[in-house]
């Protein structure tokens, strides 16, 4: 404001001098929108108020080539005299004579009252009019004439000598208006709280500031400093650009397009202007406050600069910007961004080998920032570029890898053409390896093995052998040493699956949880789905149904779409968990899904078949279940992937056959599974022995079921252990050991309830309550008469936490030594705890332990 006050004082002095009979010349300069026109209007208004004759004209870009256009405005503004019309015809006055006549008319006018001649936007005045004003300035020194001209800073002059000639006059004065400071903005705004932000956005330009204040008046307080595209502020920016000279809009577009990479040299090359014109135009934009250094102050101003740019022009500018930055070896992300933007405008983008290389490098840089979606867009453009077909095939492989980070189904769709190229020998080793990894991650293990025969071994060997037979120590070394990347996601997933199929499946739980957390940190929903599904499978393998349900649901939610074979993996776990938990309606929504036959040949399709069969078996549909199990067996045998450690289809089918009354066939399948090498693994041995016991000789049932319980207990699968324990309890009852059998059945029920296996609980003890009943108020007589043995929650309330944990495990059938190992207690301590439990509960043996004790936490916690 101080600069404006000084300018007003100078103009007041000039007016006073003019009234006193002395001539004055004042030049007002300012950036576009910075108040020069307001100052010209002010001096004209005050001059008129003193009785002076005011002649007023405004230059316009569209009239710049009209001879004497501004002079006619001056003369016609008051209709005081006719303007001479010089021409080259005989007898007509010359140009000099016409200027003399004009000057004489004004001097004569000034005899009656001072004359104030105002020309705004003088940078647009025509050359001839400027000559008249220039002549007047030289020859009216003794007359009361005030000449006020205002122009934009750094604007190209129609007559470069005009300002210089004015400056030579002794009665010349110059006013340069600066933009408002932050303190001045606070004074104008009357609200110092938001003055700093308004100053930052407007740059102190009064026109932009007024537009901001107007826009803020219609917005909430929280949005007052955030001008919208197309709003008053954006319109004011567009006005400033149009009035910043003929090159202003083009320069502004170049600056807006280059963004952070803008520099004077790059903007000059992008616009094709000569250096002087570009320098002058950029200075004009900066003087108006639109630019802060080499960029726009606010995104809304940047958007306004590009708003009137049609798609074809924008495409050409993006291509040119990519070329300029490429020549300067600018950041590859910036170059690639322009190429991508050019393609996004709908125009064809011709990417040569150099541009393709930039796009590939930029994609890798984006992956470091965990922006896989944008990286895939760059490679989509690169794969359409010019170059060798071999290079394009490599890009397609990489594109499939990157897509798998966020959309496994989309990645799977890219594999068919790549697989055909690999089979035709068109891919080299560097391309085949990642392709095989993608196939492994999609569960297409046979296809992956076909690409890498050396990794499988003998031709007749199962492709699952490498996965199932990997030593747990080797898998854990890989899980411990490898970081999650596109190249390691498949090996890490395979290592987890190996642990799940091993004799120590509990080790897969923490590793899968860690990898799931790492995938989420990488912002890779596709990877998150992979490891959430594996985490769910590990939890299901340990009998943690609730945890498996939650993780499988999370895996499905992480998928962009449910298509492809990969979604069968979490769906299979979710079906099995829902089935075991008795949530059949939820399971039915997944089993009703139509899976194309081609998808059933991979690991995930086979898992889905088994899950659907188990669901059908639970609904007492043994024929449909048997069809699913036998189909899984046929596909596994046909693909040389028959490994019960992964999928025990024979015992599944035998279970269905038992429901159909075909015990002999069921026993035959169980014996065949027991004859396979995988039967040495506790889990496979346990499920096989349980079926053999049920289908075989009743005289040996108790002994065989005891072996099954022991094997399944060692495997860590609580649900299958509870199932075998229940069968053992029934066998003991049939053999005459009613008390022992009942205790075993109660232990099985407790273990199933601990695992949330509601369906199994109902099968073991149909009448036992699954939820704790609300206590009812009792009369004092009832309370005094209740001297029987406490059970359930009432019993647990009498026990300490240590006694409760020991009692729960004892009720599940664990020996004192097993309890001591599980709870890290000595055997003597376990015995002491049990003695106190018996005394408090008024019982004499393990068989009398109640079913309602709260379950203890297991090692396979989520």
Short characterization:
The chain has 862 residues and is mostly helical. Strands 2-3-4-1-5 form a five-stranded parallel beta sheet, with helices on both faces. The chain has a two-stranded antiparallel ribbon with strand order 6-7.
Topology:
Layout: H1 2-19, E1 24-30, H2 36-49, E2 53-58, H3 69-76, H4 95-112, E3 115-120, H5 127-139, E4 145-152, H6 161-167, E5 172-177, H7 182-189, H8 195-202, H9 206-217, H10 232-242, H11 248-258, H12 264-271, H13 275-287, E6 291-292, E7 295-296, H14 299-307, H15 311-327, H16 332-344, H17 353-368, H18 372-383, H19 389-406, H20 408-413, H21 415-423, H22 429-441, H23 445-451, H24 465-468, H25 472-481, H26 489-501, H27 508-521, H28 525-541, H29 545-558, H30 568-580, H31 584-591, H32 603-618, H33 622-638, H34 649-659, H35 663-674, H36 682-695, H37 701-715, H38 718-734, H39 738-754, H40 758-764, H41 780-785, H42 792-798, H43 801-811, H44 816-823, H45 827-841
Parallel strand pairs: 1-4, 1-5, 2-3, 3-4
Antiparallel strand pairs: 6-7
